[in-house]
Amino acid sequence: MQGDIVSGVLLPAILAFIMFSLGLGLTPADFQRIVRQPRALLVGMLCHFVLLPLVCLLLIKTIGLTGAFAVGFMILAACPTGTTSNLLTYIARGDVALALSFTAVASVLTIFTLPLIVAWSLQHFAGSAQAVTVPVGAMMGQIFLMLGVPVALGMTARHLRPAAALKWEPLATRLATVLFILIVLAAVAKNWTLLRENFGSLAIFAITLNLAMLACGFLAARLARLSRKQSVTLGIESAVQNATLALVIASSVLKDDALAVPGAVYGVLMYGGGLLFAFALRRYAEAPEAQPVSTLRAQS
Questions:
Q1: 76, 103, 129, 183: which one has the fewest Cβ atoms less than 10 Å from its Cβ?
Q2: Span 140-156, pLDDT tens digits
Q3: What is the dihedral of CA 64, 69, 75, 80, to 10 degrees?
Q4: Which domain holds residue 221?
């Protein structure tokens, strides 16, 4: 009974609060900004919604991961970028406005993409019988309630009471971070035996996936000739996942705690790679862009 309360009520409520705190930091201008820089958004979408699941699947096949852990990592790869990516982007001196916009758009698109990826993963790794119990339409509705509604409420609160929202947002963000840590610790404690027996292989997988996506996001942005700040931002946005949502999907929607273990592991380890990436590229993001030769000639 206690487990049902945690999985069915507490976890979704914490996730809703985290998404509400994200909404407090967003305005319609954040979405309008995307129209003015569509290339950065499109590259980010490619990395996050195409490359991330494909890289995760490739690593799963290469390492030979199967069953619940394979599905758990695919759930994680299907989740939107984590709200803490905005903090890492700030530390790295990246494009915070782009990070906010990307986080908002990714959270909305995930309502449609995550159920499809999860349903396919269950069928591929766990057998079609289990996949039948997870209707895509119903999952879309649940995800919309957990993501879309809280974000919309947060944005509405900021629109109606902007001064109060700006004052409350930093505290809400810190509280959301603490709640996230509590969720991860609870998942680790609940599945300690399973985690202890498999931590070695899961940790290696999580670190490899994290570093691979940091590199993929950054390099894809540079190949698309985006600015240094935008490249740093998309590297972070491609690798920092909403592990809280992964835990909620596993424990509350699919009712299988084993599926939550990969999300718990990645949710802890991704900050190590993210912080190293942020501090390593901090000066790189601050360096002035090289001017085109034509511009230099004109100046001379």
A1: 129
A2: 666 677 667 887 888 88
A3: -90
A4: 2-287
